[in-house]
Amino acid sequence: MLGTAFNYVALRLLGEGPEGGGDGAVTKARKWVLDHGGATMIPAWGKVYLSVIAFKIFFFFPFKPA
To answer: Whole-angstrom Cα distance, residue 39 to residue 29?
Structure first.
């Protein structure tokens, strides 16, 4: 679960769209994570890591580039 959630976030941060990736990788990853309980099912340290990533992105890049 942790690896799939991190990979999904990484693909999205790198600019892949919700339907993007080779062979629909983003769509498959999102479906798998949601089918297994969502990102709330990852370990506590994984949630902290994701929140730090989100904080850094929204703090340093408050507006999405065009």
So the answer is: 12
